[in-house]
Amino acid sequence: MKTSLDLPDELIKEAMQLTDVKTKTKVIVLALQELIKKNKVADLKSYKGAFDLDIDIDIDIDTLRNRNARFD
Question: Which pTM does this prediction carry?
Fold first, then answer.
């Protein structure tokens, strides 16, 4: 989608230098992707402690950590 934006030159230049991205388009796309990812992570963090941990899920952590373990 083609869009015209009025963006501060210094902000774009600094973002391009920090990320080593060569084009304005790519740095804006990267910024949008990071913003979306940040918000999704924050949304997931809101669930911390929201689950009932008193249920019996029958998981053996030692088996899970063993990369050679076979699962049925």
Answer: 0.62
